[in-house]
Amino acid sequence: MNDANPETKTGAETGAIRNSAESWKSQPPYQTTPSNSHFDKKWTAHCHCGRVKYWLSRERPLATKFCHCVDCQGLHGAPFQWAAIFEKTDLHFERGAEGLAFYHSADKTTVHKLPCKVSCAYCHAPIMDEGRNMVLMFPGIIKFSDAEHKKLFDPQCHIFYSQRVVDIHDGKPKWSRLDGQSELIKEVESKDAKHSTVLGEARNESMDD
User: Fold this and answer.
1) pLDDT in tens, 87-135
2) Which of 15, 39, 78, 165 is most exposed, with the fewest beta carbons within 10 Å of its own?
3) The whole model's pTM is what?
4) What are the CA-CA distances from residue 177 to residues 43, 150, 161 (Å)?
5) pLDDT digits (tens, 9 = 90+) for 2-29
């Protein structure tokens, strides 16, 4: 039976890619070069099992944020997500799209359909969120040589803070939804914090990010 889905489907369990004629695999960040020698490697990152490895050519991200949205909480199994924004051309995967799994959260399908979640197909460690123009990669998998280098990825703000599960006392701007497009939330002083640790809006399946 012919597949009517125009997007590229992937084998999420094995990382095998079907419909290999799709052009996205030959474009950044999946485009590979001979021996990976023509890419300026500022940072090295890899998944938990080490099967997926990539490099970054930009020393400092365009922006870095903590995201507290309920989707990030559910997909990462964590109170919030640490994300750094890069151009797609700033990333270079050692083996291109091989070994990667894709998930399009809007329709809950394992297809490479933007925007999508990208993870290792073997250990399932989150690698990045790929948008139409940019990528949000996760600095937690970068091999930083020291604390000073890690500071280059220090977040500038919090987003979707209205959906947080814990108060963060760091003095950074805290936006109720997207930064610059929503209301700022006043930081709660430690002495004024509620006795309950888990805070924020209840999960609602109708919430839009």
Assistant:
1) 999 999 999 999 999 999 999 999 899 999 999 999 999 999 999 999 9
2) 78
3) 0.78
4) 30, 26, 7
5) 444 434 444 444 444 444 447 899 899 9
